[in-house]
Specification:
- The chain contains seven helices and three strands.
- By secondary structure, the chain is mainly alpha-helical.
- Strands 1-3-2 form a three-stranded antiparallel beta sheet.
- The longest helix has 23 residues, at 19-41.
- The chain is elongated and about 60 Å long.
Length: 153
């Protein structure tokens, strides 16, 4: 019977240097760090709140459906997150005068202020994640990851 290993940090040699494995591990680490950063310093807000506020601040008023598509957040989760943001007066929702079945969401001045505070949380996480890299290596990593995400023919 083969020996069992209890160490969770062990990775088989044929996997450990594969880009897909390394990217998945980096994703897991960055996700955990972001969650912890929001938990400790986000005043009850999370990454999905940050994405919604960032989208509204950059692109202006949008329907809830468009926000979901633009941020990659499921429609039901968008609705729940917007209820939370609205309760904090970080966004406003109004019925679209052209389509009464649709809400248009707008970021408030308080939402812009909170977004700026959350930028600091996210920035600190980026710095922690990339602490072992030089500024040039950070730029190179971002460039390579961006290239990997470009559409292929």
């Amino acid at each position: 019977m083969p020996a069992r290993h209890s160490r969770s940090d062990r990775t088989p040699d044929r996997i450990k240097n594969r880009p897909t494995w390394l990217i998945s591990r980096a994703f897991a680490r960055s996700s955990a760090m972001l969650s912890a950063g929001f938990e400790q310093h986000g005043d009850g807000l999370r990454g999905h709140h940050y994405r919604l506020l960032a989208a509204l601040e950059q692109w202006g008023p949008a329907s809830q459906a468009d926000l979901g598509r633009d941020t990659g957040i499921d429609r039901s989760d968008v609705t729940a997150a917007l209820i939370e943001l609205e309760a904090r007066r970080l966004i406003e929702r109004r019925v679209d005068p052209e389509n009464k079945k649709r809400n248009i969401v707008t970021i408030t001045a308080g939402g812009i202020h909170e977004l700026t505070a959350l930028d600091s949380v996210v920035g600190n996480v980026q710095d922690g994640l990339l602490a072992s890299l030089t500024p040039a290596q950070r730029r190179q990593l971002v460039g390579l990851l961006t290239r990997l995400l470009e559409p292929t023919d």
